[in-house]
Amino acid sequence: MPGKSPRIRKTVDRFSPYKQPLRTVSDDEVLDFLDEVAAVSPTHDDWKGGDGVAVGRMALVANDDQRREVNGIGDTHGCHSCLTRVESDPNQPWIGDHCPPTSLSDAARKALGVAEERYDGSVQLRPQCDSCSVTQASLVVRVNSEVSQGLKPNLNAFGEVLVGKKAGRHTRGVNATSAKVSPAQGDAIQKLGQTYGCHSCKAKFPKDYYHADHNPPVCYTYSHVIAILEYAKQNIEGCEDIVITQNFKLKPQCPRCSHEQGGRMAGLNASAEDLARRLRLPVY
Ligand SMILES: [Zn+2]
Ligand SMILES: [Zn+2]
Question: Domain limits at 119?
Answer without folding.
Answer: 95-196
